[in-house]
Amino acid sequence: MGLRLGDTAPDFTAETSEGKITFHEWLGTSWGVLFSHPADYTPVCTTELGMTAKLKDEFDKRNVKVLALSVDDVESHQGWIKDINETQGTHVNFPIIADPKREVSTMYDMIHPNADNSLTVRSLFIIDPDKKIKLIITYPASTGRNFHEILRVIDSLQLTANYSVATPANWQHGEDVVIAPAITDEEIPAKFPKGYKKIKPYLRTTPQPNL
Ligand code: BEZ
């Protein structure tokens, strides 16, 4: 059975473009993003890795470590990284796992045989500091991911981990959030002193509590 939200992210040791990594130890107390790419020297992947590198400050701000995976070997990764740096105007600043034996890809169910028998699809896992999987998304090879959306989701996950709130459709950091249904109206003033709006008994909003 594949991995599900709330599962512990499987630990592994793998060679990467920055040396050998044991995943849980490498994560330490950080959040993590682990994401796969079909293969080295492919155009969409090149833009995705360049974009991720450019967003390093944003990931750092959120205490998130980023780890990419592609099924090619370290030597191939090193050559490809030069191309990414050159074409995307950046410097790849995170490790890329070399997974030629498909060990990590198989562990994380990143190979979808109906898409391709041997290459990984675009899987992405967000992992919290307890090593629990908080989000899984899967895109086909032909669709590059939106890494601003990944940051937005991390903002939501980090907020909702600490407050009894949820984030509505298209929510962005700084906007009002939804009060969790489990919170009674009587409990709201103590928990959300900035006030709230009761649009329906089940739809109550409050200013983002951690600002
Ligand atoms: C790409 O990353 O550009 C790509 C990889 C596999 C199939 C299609 C596109």
From TrEMBL:
InterPro entries xref list: AhpC/TSA (IPR000866), Peroxiredoxin_AhpC-typ (IPR024706), Peroxiredoxin_C (IPR019479), PRX_1cys (IPR045020), Thioredoxin-like_sf (IPR036249), Thioredoxin_domain (IPR013766)
PANTHER family: MCG48959-RELATED (PTHR43503), PEROXIREDOXIN-6 (PTHR43503:SF4)
Active site: residue positions: 45 (cysteine sulfenic acid (-soh) intermediate)
The keyword Ribosomal protein appears for this protein: no
Protein name (record): Alkyl hydroperoxide reductase subunit C-like protein
Higher taxonomy: Bacteria, Pseudomonadati, Bacteroidota, Cytophagia, Cytophagales
Gene Ontology cellular component list: cytosol
Molecular functions per Gene Ontology: peroxiredoxin activity
Sequence similarity: Belongs to the peroxiredoxin family. AhpC/Prx1 subfamily.
Keywords on record: Antioxidant, Oxidoreductase, Peroxidase, Redox-active center
Chain ranges of the Thioredoxin domain: 3-159
GO terms under biological process: cell redox homeostasis
